Amino acid sequence: MTKQIETSIRIKASSETVWDILTDFEKYPQWNPFIKSVKGEVKEGNNIEVRIEPPGAKGMTFKPKVLAFKPQKEFKWLGNLWVKGLFDGEHAFFLTAHKDGSTTLVQSEKFKGILVPLFSNMLDNNTLKGFQQMNEKLRELAEAKVLESAFNVVKP
């Protein structure tokens, strides 16, 4: 059984600005409503520890393997629930820079395994909302950063 969730958002900021916020994992607890923490050395082939808390659902901590970590382009991991094949998720962030200086962020996850039908409703509701909330907050932060630098605003 397979299922995919995908969200997309256009951000009025460079891919560098978006990437800097997306990969500043230490600050996730301060702003990220969906992914509460990412710990470990984020490098292709490494296992990291990720804590997600979808809105209206129980949070979970898991240890996915980093499949891709390409600055300003792609960050992807593969995690499983308990054992491989039951409920596997390939989570990905893709950034596309545009000529006008904006960036499109695509956040997606492909789910595979025999338990996917059991979690389908939660994925369509809670997980999708979590993606959307994270994308919106990331856009707010990136666009605020652009405004700050444009007006040389110094925050106390």
Automatic annotation (TrEMBL):
InterPro entries: Polyketide_cyclase/dehydratase, START-like_dom_sf
Domain of life of the organism encoding this protein: Bacteria
Record's signal peptide: none
Pfam families assigned: Polyketide_cyc2
PANTHER family membership: CHROMOSOME 9, WHOLE GENOME SHOTGUN SEQUENCE, SRPBCC DOMAIN-CONTAINING PROTEIN
Protein's recorded name: SRPBCC domain-containing protein
